[in-house]
Specification:
By secondary structure, this protein is of the alpha/beta class. It contains 2 helices and 8 strands, in the order E-H-E-E-E-E-H-E-E-E. The strands form 2 sheets. The protein has a 4-stranded mixed sheet with strand order 1-4-3-2, covered by helices on one side. A hairpin with a 5-residue loop joins strand 7 and strand 8. Helix 1 packs antiparallel against helix 2. The radius of gyration is 15 Å and the shape is globular. It starts with 9 loop residues before the first strand and ends with a strand.
Length: 127
C-alpha cells in the first residue's frame, strides 16, 4: 500500500435548506460561499487556498444528502483561536454543543456545534 500524505481530501456537509445553511456558514466563517450546481447537487464551497493544496469541502443539497447529528464528524479550521468562530455560532442560529476544550498543549483545542440543519460539526485551533 502506498504512503498517503493526507488521509482526508474532501468533506461534504449535507443540508436541507440551502439558503439558510449558506447564510449560517458564511456568517460563522466570515466569508461568502461560492455556489455551483454539480449535476443535481447544489453546492456551496467552503474557503480553501488552492495554492496550499489543503483539504476542501462544501455544503451540499440534493438526493442522498441528509443532515444528521450522528455519524462522521468534520473538523473545520478555527484559525488561530476558534473563539472567533464560536462567538458567531449562536447569532447565526446555531447551537454550541461542546465549548472550547483543550485536547493537549501540542494538539490544541476543539469545540462542537450544531448547524442550522442539525449536523454536528467540530472546529479546531492550536490556541
Amino acid at each position: 500500500m502506498e504512503n498517503l500524505k493526507d488521509a482526508i481530501v474532501w468533506a461534504e456537509i449535507p443540508v436541507l435548506n440551502f439558503e439558510r445553511a449558506k447564510a449560517f456558514y458564511s456568517s460563522i466563517l466570515n466569508c461568502e460561499l461560492y455556489e455551483q450546481m454539480m449535476g443535481s447537487l447544489r453546492m456551496g464551497f467552503l474557503p480553501m487556498d488552492p495554492e496550499s493544496k489543503g483539504v476542501g469541502g462544501t455544503i451540499v443539497q440534493g438526493h442522498g444528502y441528509t443532515p444528521s447529528a450522528l455519524g462522521t464528524k468534520v473538523y473545520l479550521n478555527g484559525g488561530k483561536d476558534l473563539t472567533k468562530i464560536l462567538n458567531r455560532i449562536e447569532p447565526a442560529n446555531g447551537k454550541i454543543i461542546q465549548p472550547k476544550t483543550k485536547i493537549t498543549d501540542e494538539i490544541g483545542y476543539f469545540a462542537i456545534f450544531e448547524d442550522t440543519e442539525g449536523n454536528h460539526v467540530c472546529v479546531h485551533s492550536l490556541d
